[in-house]
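Q: My labmate handed me this sequence with no annotations at all. I'd like to see what the chain might look like in three dimensions before we decide whether it's worth expressing. Could you predict it?
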Amino acid sequence: MLRYAGGGQVINSTSAVTPAGMSCPVAAGKTYFMSGAVTGTQGATASQQALRLSATGGATSVNVLYLASTYGFVGGAGMFSQYGNVTAVNTDLATASGAGGITAGLGFGWMISGLITCTAAGTLAVQARCVTLSTDTWTFLTDSHLVLYPVA
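A: Here is what I predict for the chain of 152 residues:
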């Protein structure tokens, strides 16, 4: 199980970073079912944010569904959600925001579920980044998690 247990890590890079506890070893040719949720809080500037799955050994088959959504109300900003299907590793999942980005101070998150087959032994990780500028920060929240079960 991948579980972020820190006190909230500030994401302040346009390059993908792996928050503490959000990676684990995987075996070559093994298929895993994954399910989890990642939550965050937008920093002081409205902006797009990104999450991705990374596999250092690569993946031959990726079929992961996700729902990205904001929650709560800040300054009259309401909820926004979207969903998608991830078919490759190291590709950003769509952010939970409208055209102007996630409203400053608003909570948001991704729910993730699906299958991944790893090409070679390596590390599977959940990574986060700022989409536009490293100064458009967000906080990766405690108890974000992804559970992996080997199925084949």
